[in-house]
Amino acid sequence: MELKKNRREKGVFVAEGPKVVGDLLRAGYKAHTIFCIREAEYATVDARLVAVTSEELCKLSFLQHPQEVLAVFEIPNSLATACREPKRLCLALDGIQDPGNLGTIIRIADWFGIDTIYCSEDTADVYNPKVVQATMGSLAHVSIVYCDLVELLSRATIPVYGTLLDGDDIYRQPLSPEGIIVMGNEGNGISQQVRPLVNHRLLIPNFHQGAKTAESLNVAIATAITCSEFRRR
Q1: Euclidean distance between the first and the last CA atom of the chain, given in angstroms as a whole number
Q2: What is the pTM of this model?
């Protein structure tokens, strides 16, 4: 299930490790098959159990160091969430490409109590094994919806925030308890189509003015800083 087209055709994705698999099961995700070293630990789960050795799990795993269990889950239907008008604080991801960044952002959203993330169609697939593992189980707590971001933001009735180089210092701007926070592509930032729809432009300032520093922040780190500032208020 490494390829997106295979995952979508079969309607399943892979999760590995006791924590990630356990969190998904507790959240109500339906397991199709569970490959595990300790079969007794999953005896009560309504799924096909396959006992494997450590060597066999290594051959199945997408990880460098397999973690005792690999489960094949059914991809849930998110249409109900997709139809829901954003009302609370949420994230909108515009072209995030790196699976590690996407997984980390989902984990960040979970930590800061953000339960919905809207993704542009060209954002990395949330069910990529690398994304699933990077969430460390937070995929079980956050709804991920792929949609047309331009359409979503055009009809938004709450503030639309975005981090941009020509934005205003986030530490000096009023931030509302509800809103859509747009985070852009790793290399290009927020797309030209989405940028005009951001009505509150924010900047995370560089505190080492006049010295050579990094040109920009990693998008996952920028997301964490932004979410933290919203919640701090």
Answers
A1: 42
A2: 0.90
